[in-house]
Give the backbone structure.
Amino acid sequence: MSELFTISVIISLFFSAIRLATPLIFAALGGMFSERSGIINIALEGLMLAGAFTAAVATYELNNPYLGLLCGMAAGGVMALIYAVAVIQFEANQVVAGTAINFLMLGLPQLISGAVYDSSGSTPQIAKDYLLPDFGTFIANTNYFVIRGILILITLVVAKIIYDWLSGRPKAIGGNFDKLIAVVLAVVAVSLFTILLMLFSSSISIASILAFALIPICWYVLYKTPFGLRLRAVGENPAAADAAGVNVIKLRYVAVILSGILAAAGGAYLSIGQSSLFTRGMTAGRGFIALAALILAKWKPVPVLFACLFFGFTEALTIPLANYKLASGENIPVQFVQIIPYVLTIIVLAGFIGLSRAPKALGIPYSKEK
Amino acid sequence: MKILREIFSPLIAVVAAFIVGGIIVLLIKDDPLQTYSLLIGNSFGSLKDIGWTLFYATPLIFTGLAVAVAFRCGLFNIGAEGQLYVASFATAWVGITFGGVIVKVTDEYIHYPWADLSPFLLVPLCILTAIVVGGLWGAIPGFLRARFGSSEVINTIMLNFIGIALVSYLTQYHYKVSGDPILETAPIGKAAYIPQLKEYVSFIPSDVPLNFAFLIAILMCVLVYIFLWKTKWGYELRAVGANASAAEYGGISPKKQIIIAMTISGALAGMVAINEVLGSRHLYYDGFSAELGFLGIAVALLGRNHPLGVFVAAIFFAVLMRGEIFVDAFTRYVSKDIGLILQAIAILFVACLQKYSKK
């Protein structure tokens, strides 16, 4: 009988959870922008597939994962634009149009790869050197000055955030002293974080770092920028936002396209990060899981991180469980672990764990005449 | 004139889908005309073709009706997929347990000699199981919506995953014939088989699995029509779908109607089991559906949520499913995915045109 939770298993579980949460974070954050603006996004699954397929093809053809990622994100944006035209311009039912996009993305990649590569099963395998790298490989292959530049930039942003927080407090000392403290704290924080990353550099993909970095960025955009304020207003009460001079239609277009770009990035990580090719329906319901995570997180960016990590963790748990045998010699069925996120989502949605309130105008098309 | 208006937008959507699909085919340097003639031309050419097309249409009629009934109550049943899986497994379970089948699971034999039911008892029992289990699985999101106001869209999606995982567990650990590499149950008892139409109609070719489920599907179209438009219950259900608060003001309980609609919807989706388990495969096979439940959404939409429309739309989709095989085999570049693409584009157009077809 093997031990279920040895230290090495727990550590690998931790990193699998991060790896599996990465595509969910991208997609859930994408869904957040769309749903906060009042547009339901069932199409996340299809948008992820668009990103996964395009990224795999572009990376294979161009031998560059970063260009591949960008192409994937662009494809997600284009598909989201089609979705946006349907649901915003034509006021098509959002669930129906979303389902149509999901269907389209189940068929179209197959048709194209069948015609171009003569195999509708999958796209050709991408060489390992051209996949999205882990953090260590990324550092080793990138110009030293670029990395230093990125680090200084991040430190400055962190310092600014700390400074804003310090000077916003009632007992602010103010002036240069706050600035000094902010810079020192930022340098310490960024250094510690970088050292931590370097320690586990081969276990963390560059995409995971990107996904985690997106959480504070999305939080900032949603709560601290005029765009975010308008977005939330449009999702809650589009008529009032319109009266206040917000262009509801334009804002919703931007939000939906943004959600397509982010979801596609999550899909791209699946095809050019976790694996090395695109296979039919390779997202396997992750778009819907991201949607569930978004609901579990009550449409807020920071809880999205934890919801996605939790979902990633339950998925990661299925790997050691499959190899583990009880004293009686029986397996613990992985299916019982697999359904935890879905059961939890239903429970949360029913309001048993705090109130989960969707944006008020979610799913309702907006037209001025009303 | 009313009929013309009703079929106007589906017709435009289908034509538009074929145009867009044709452009896609041109873009991958193939011949759209050849593709389309292969896609459509092989569905009605012979009795065999017609039989297969109708066989493919049967489950789509059930899921299409399922989605349509929920639609009429203003609800989205994205969960037909989960409902039909759970119902199919339950039906297979009854067919195995009460069909006198000897199953060897791991080391022990499961056999209930007292449960050797005759076909006259077993077939109705199996059909009832399909209806009841599908209905119950559909009732859950209905209840959650009525009691807690939580979105049936999300809940049905979640229940799809839960249902499929549960039956896959049961299949894998309890009802699989040991040594079978495929995730499927033991075959159901012979007594649970429903008759093939070829046994009664001489001109149906012997390799066509068209069975009594098709007749049940037609019967369901009629029953759903009668229920929705000729009974008080159907009227109340549609009243809630048209305007829930007005219906409540008129003394109809929307909560009750929501639960009823979702139960009926689930039951109809569950009836897919009659065709798949009792009529053709004679066992539960993990993953047999391949999006039948989701296609039901498209069928209902294209059929304007009317039983007759659902029937026609199901036939149309079945034509595409049948034609896909020939497209795959005989064109240079186009793969069978063209069928799915055409369906997707057609749904998108119908959804976009809905705004203009009201009133």
